[in-house]
Amino acid sequence: MPRELLIQVAPEVAANLTLLNEHLAKLMHVKTAEIQHVAILKRSIDARQRAVKINLKVNVFFQGESFEESKIELPDYKNVANAQEVIVVGAGPAGLFAALQLIELGVKPIVIERGKDVRGRRRDLKAINRDGIVNEDSNYCFGEGGAGTYSDGKLYTRSKKRGDVDRILALLVAFGATPEIMVEAHPHIGTNKLPQIIQDIREKIIECGGQVLFETRVTDILIKDREIQGVITQNGDVIEAKKIILATGHSARDIFELLDKKKVLIEAKPFALGVRAEHPQSLIDTIQYSCDFRGEFLPPAPYSIVKQVNGRGMYSFCMCPGGVIAPCATSPGEVVTNGWSPSKRDQATANSGIVVELKLEDFKPFAKFGALAGMEFQKAIEQKAWHLAGETQKVPAQRMVDFTQSKVSSDIPKTSYVPGTTSVELGQVFPAFLTQIMREGFVQFGKSMRGYYTNDAILHAPESRTSSPVRIPRDNATLEHLEIKGLYPCGEGAGYAGGIISAAIDGEKCAIKCVETMK
Ligand code: FAD
Which positions fall inside the FAD-binding domain (predicted)? Predict the structure, then answer.
């Protein structure tokens, strides 16, 4: 039997198997030669003390003990070409994992995606970055893999159901992600590696007899006597099915408008909104690791911070160490920020959304839009930012200390946001209550993280697509829409997920519930 141990070691020991073996041998009072193999089960960084340590959970195998490298394999997917059909709208993590689960259960998914495949999508990302041209169907939010494809690919979630999380991580490994994601406490994949994994998932769906339709936008949902009949696409094509898993993400405003127009029950949902802050990564490393230089054995440091300001939470969101700020608008006439990073997180800057929780009462000025009030609040800020920054994909930007002192920054250095920035007093972008909270909040952040509150940090506005501004309500047990039979609101856009992993888990759950009613 291998011996399971929890140990804490210096980063250089964790990074070197010989040193690790020596450390373990000493700890267990054995000779290094007696250790046959060390399997690392979990790894996390403990940066609470001055000398940063690595926590490891290991299995030590002694000579003569048998061990097998565990190999993660794909489930036994069936051929579903002639099986009953379910429409899955949206090929984000929720839609793709719903489709895989349907196949596992012997049902044929027809995945309908407005955007292009991962390769075609790249050209449109170039166009928004270089020329400020926003393709309303193909951008950082829309296209194969959804909003998660060209992201940081952080794979952690607040979900307490470890089994669900591990199942998704294992599937990602089986589709080509590094097995390290099963070990790291805060795993991530990176923008350079995600597209291939997504493409392999799509190829598997097609190989098993599922269908994936790109550049096909759903423009109407057919409902008769409160039961789903199918969808209509932008070309007027009708695709019939009695079940739809609707996984269109938090940015599909036309879908929210369509449901509202068709009097399908939807609700306004609070979300969070603010700015994306960019610091030099070396500064964040110094703060988080209490050192002058990070050295070669520690990864670029992440951070996570939350404060209560005027009774509201202000917190970091989707922090990207060694990352880049991306233009994430989905329509012309608006600017939106978010962040991504390559797998090595080797860019010189660290960025994070810094957002304030909103309440339904904040949407009162937009009350005439009913369930779409939050969405209109969000849209108005994105459009204002676009206007203030010069009506291109440039974003309004301000140095952090200048922002807290309502002072227009005299210059903005080049940041990682490729379309560029315009110096704007960010108080003009947001309602007064939000500006006031953020001004106070940044000063407070500086007290917890010494060095964080600095004019070397550049704020980009707005960070507005943190979660869906609308909920599509569903029954807790059946996951079916409260009023429409056969409609399964799914993933982040419906208000049941926040992030890649939780969206994928929700996709699987909806698929399981959907199939239960088909037997
Ligand atoms: P989405 O991924 O939004 O997918 C919805 C899909 O539906 C899209 O592909 C869209 O094109 C399609 N669609 C919309 N309307 C229609 C229609 N009418 N017809 C057909 N198709 C339609 N999360 C993390 O966990 N970790 C991260 O590091 C991370 N980084 C991010 C970085 C960026 C730049 C962005 C934009 C997001 C990031 N996120 C991250 C958030 C994460 O991507 C989302 O939470 C997740 O993708 C939600 O999954 P989903 O399937 O519910 O929706």
Answer: 85-116
> Which protein residues are within 6 Å of ligand 1, measured from CB?
89-95, 112-115, 140-143, 146-148, 151-154, 217-218, 247-249, 252, 254-255, 318, 326, 328, 338-340, 491-493, 497-501, 503
Given the CA of residue 142, which atom of ligand 1 is nearest to it? Answer: 11
DSSP state, 190?
-
Quick check: 220 and 258 in contact, CB under 8 A? yes
What is the β-pairing status of strands 470-471 and 267-268? antiparallel
Alpha-carbon gap, residue 396 to 455, rounded angstroms: 16
Q: How far apart are CA 165 and CA 115, in angstroms?
A: 27
Within the chain, what is the greatest distance between any pair of CA atoms? 75
Residue pLDDT, tens place only, 22-41: 999 999 999 999 999 999 99
- What is the Cα–Cα distance from 506 to 512, expressed in whole angstroms? 10
Superfamily of domain covering 85-267+476-516: FAD/NAD(P)-binding domain (3.50.50.60)
CA 373 to chain centre: 24
In contact, 268 and 374? CB cutoff 8 Å: yes
ipTM: 0.99
What is the CATH number that goes with domain 3-62?
A: 3.30.70
- Tell me: the pLDDT tens digits for 453-510? 999 999 999 999 999 999 999 999 999 999 999 999 999 999 999 999 999 999 999 9
Residue 136 Cα distances to 238, 336, 380, angstroms: 22, 13, 18
- Which residue out of 151, 257, 325 has the highest number of ligand 1 atoms within 8 Å of its CB and is therefore the one to mutate? 151
For 321-407, strand residue ranges (E) read 324-327, 337-340, 349-357, 395-399
> Where does 321-443 show beta strands of DSSP type E?
324-327, 337-340, 349-357, 395-399, 421-423
